[in-house]
Design brief:
Elements lengths: L1 H22 L5 E5 L3 E8 L11 H17 L1 H4 L4 H24 L2 E6 L8 H28 L13
Antiparallel strand pairs: 1-2, 2-3
Length: 162
């Protein structure tokens, strides 16, 4: 199921990007809620907020390395709590969504524009939500380990469905 969530993120991201590229002109901005939320078609040569501009191969290599790492450690990842697995699925789905753009044309299609924040896309949302879920699950695991050592809880991660 976590991999399905990742595939869903990829499919949704790519379908919306195809729609934006097919129906909008580069730089075009369509107000959805005036001065609050627009659909704005931009191409991003970097990562979030345009950092590391024009380092296409760096991002491609990092994403492929992460995918290989997940494939290698898949059996042990399957034993992690649900929040970790779903978070990893979202993070990977978002990374692959942007990887597809980078491989196709070296730039990432962004379109969600809240006017006070850099323009982003669905893959970016999946990456951020997935990363938060990973951090929360790791913090929960750390909390459980510490309280188990102190005798405050009787089991660690036993049956946790986080």
């Amino acid at each position: 199921m976590p991999l399905f969530i990742g595939f869903l993120a990829i499919i949704l991201d790519q379908l919306v990007k195809i729609y934006v590229v097919s129906n909008m002109k580069l730089g075009e901005s369509i107000p959805v809620v005036q001065d609050i939320f627009h659909l704005t078609y931009v191409l991003n040569p970097g990562a979030a907020f345009g950092i590391l501009e024009n380092h296409r191969w760096f991002f491609i290599v990092i994403c492929i390395a992460i995918l290989l790492g997940v494939a290698i450690f898949y059996k042990s990842i399957r034993r992690e709590c649900a929040m970790f697995r779903y978070g990893l699925g979202l993070l990977l789905g978002g990374a692959v969504g942007n990887l597809i753009d980078r491989i196709q044309n070296g730039l990432v299609v962004d379109f969600l524009d809240f006017r006070i924040w850099p323009v982003f896309n669905i893959a970016d949302i999946a990456i951020c939500v997935g990363a938060v879920m990973l951090v929360v699950s790791l913090l929960n695991e750390s909390w459980q380990d510490e309280h188990y050592k102190m005798g405050r809880i009787k089991t660690r991660r036993g049956g946790s469905t986080w």
